[in-house]
Amino acid sequence: MLKPKTTATRELVNLDGLWRFAVDTGDLTDPWASTLDTTLEAPVPSSYNDLFTDAKIRDHVGWVWYQRTVRVPRGWAGERIVVRLDAATHEGVVYVDDVEVVRHEGGYLPFEADITDHVTAGAEFRLTVGVNNVLTPDTVPPGLVKDLPDGRKQQGYMHDFYNYSGLHRSVWLYSAPATRVTDVTVVTDVEGTTGLVRTGVETSGEAEVRLTLRDEQGAVVATGTGAEATLEVADVRLWQPGAAYLYDLTVELVDGGTVLDAYDLHVGVRTVEVRGNQFLINGEPFYFTGFGKHEDIAVKGKGHDNAFLVHDFELIDWIGANSFRTSHYPYAEEVMDYADRHGIVVIDETSAVGLNSRISGGIADLMSAMGGGGGEEGFGPKMAEAHRREIRELIARDKNHPSVVMWSIANEPDTMAEGTDDYFEPLFALTRELDPTRPVTFVNVMMAPPNVCRVSKFADVICINRYYGWYVDTGDLATAEVHLEAELRGWEQMYGKPMIMTEYGADTIPGFHSVWDQPWTEEFQANLLDMYHRVFDRVDAMVGEQVWNFADFQTSVGIFRVDGNKKGAFTRDRKPKAAAHALRKRWTALRDGRTA
């Protein structure tokens, strides 16, 4: 799906701001049919959970409603008019006046509707959006709704981050010609010093496709025609980790001498390959340093915020990191665009997290054993279809980002149970069918070592989350080091594939100190990370380390998580812990080719 842009033939109106807001407790009748009867207002984008002081809103399970009035620009007569939502978590429905125009499942990916037949250029219309936060055993991510004795509903889920809900990303109104570009696929390669930019263009009508590629100074470096073409770029400047270079591709639909539509796209020329136990970018071995992150800030929850976007990337640069994983869902497109422009490498992950009733928030089976949380993963046809949809939509959105070097199709699923290989093998095949140019992985959970996991055989890269020294061998780093190295050697011997530690770390209370290796102290967090790094440096197949987590984040796992997960190298408001300084010493040395 193309990101809406203002071009020579398209216009774009941002609909962010304060919208009327109402919680549906069962007393709303057709809330789209008239002006919402409410005094509440909610900002878009943001989660609604932390905005208000009413606990009934924060803990609400079910539908909420957003509404505003929109005026269509008067110059849009004769154009196709589209409403686009960058995300609605986890299900969204859109009404133009009293007409439903689109419904979508999946909380982190965009959807849109052509509303030309329902609006008039120069006139106003009522735009109403319903958002449903319910998770079931058939959704991705899964969950289970419990009916409480007093009639309230409680949402349970198996993932360790808060179920923030609402319109987390921007809402747009845009115009486009009737005959227009509907999709563009770009695949790059390199032959010697020549860059190859292979393009595939889909359109809504018949017209000649004309392609123009310009460098960062605006000079034309290649041209072509046709729905499928290969543009050759002499003396190509490659997109490199830490040194992004982006060409500008203009796709035009032409009828005679008239340009019917134009769409612009940034292109980074680079290659990605797995060879033996190495991960190669542009033919050179690449070692991942960075984090699993979250879209999580105070008050706004998962609401996208450009100030935090810039600050987070500045901290990533300060600490010397070169990558991150979009744990555990697709991030806002602004994040991906920024990574493209600044040379940050991304492992792009679906929202298939929590497909595992053996864990809850990283605490093995404790919740279900004590009668709370838990649930059963589906792994059935409905979940599989939701999972396939998520993979299709993620690749359709992010396939052209040079920063994206690998797809992760799930985080910590149960890969021990019989039949999980039958569930995952078709998903790996689908991902490779949709994009044969990038490696595919999933993230392995601690209870599934190499001799137990049924799914790692399908992955191009072994990504594992391990907590030796924290959940296992708690506080005993010497024993943890032995066990960690033994397991990594087992993976290396069994598979011979590149390995990335996609999660490792320890909860840490900022300001808590000790002269001993005491869990929860800043010293222990730094020492634990140092222990992991010693082991990584001894294992040849290790090609990356991504600490859990970039910053502390909100959860809802009760007594096991006091005001959230505290494994961040930074606090939730982005203040560095001691571990951040230790990581900076190691990662800047790796980046500069020095010994830490």
Describe the structure.
This protein is α+β, with helices and mostly antiparallel strands. A hairpin with a 2-residue loop joins strand 6 (91-96) and strand 7. Helix 7 (477-495) packs parallel to helix 8. It folds into three domains: 11-176, Jelly Rolls; 181-270, Immunoglobulins (Immunoglobulin-like), CATH 2.60.40; 273-592, TIM Barrel (Alpha-Beta Barrel). The strands form eight sheets. The chain has an eight-stranded parallel beta barrel, surrounded by five helices. A six-stranded antiparallel beta sheet has the order 3-2-4-9-6-7, with no helix packed on it. The longest helix is centred in the last third of the chain and has 19 residues, at 477-495. The chain contains nine helices and 32 strands.
Radius of gyration: 24 Å
Spatial arrangement of strands, main beta sheet: 23-24-25-28-29-30-31-32
Number of strands: 32
Structural class: alpha+beta
CATH class of the largest domain: Alpha Beta
User: Looking at CATH, which topology of the largest domain would you report?
Assistant: TIM Barrel
Give the overall pLDDT as a whole number: 94
Bulk shape: globular
Can you tell me the CATH superfamily of the largest domain?
A: Glycosidases
Can you name the CATH architecture of the largest domain?
Answer: Alpha-Beta Barrel
How many structural domains can be distinguished in the coordinates?
3
Low-confidence stretches: 360-377
Q: Percent of residues in beta strands? A: 25-35%
Q: Give the termini distance in whole angstroms.
A: 43 Å
Number of helices: 9
Strand count, sense and closure of the main sheet? 8 strands, parallel, barrel
- Helix proportion range: 10-25%
